[in-house]
Design goal:
Layout: H1 2-37, H2 39-50, H3 54-68
Length: about 70
């Protein structure tokens, strides 16, 4: 039992970081896929979520102008 507890404690030092980085990588991959294959839908979502922060909204809107208003 002590050995199991020691193993669990030792693995807790890296398990969270590994799970967190894996989850972040999945989100990043999905965003990249959407941005490449469905750019209009991707930017619509980004602008909708980004409306809460004026600074990000301006950046996203600027990128949309470059992509869609040429």
């Amino acid at each position: 039992m002590d050995r199991l507890c020691e193993t669990l404690i030792a693995s807790s030092n890296y398990s969270f970081n590994k799970a967190h980085s894996t989850a972040y990588a999945i989100v990043a991959y999905n965003e990249a896929w959407l941005k490449r294959n469905y750019p209009l839908h991707f930017w619509k979502g980004k602008l909708t979520v980004g409306m809460a922060k004026a600074e990000k909204f301006k950046i996203y809107l600027g990128e949309c102008e470059v992509l869609f208003c040429q």
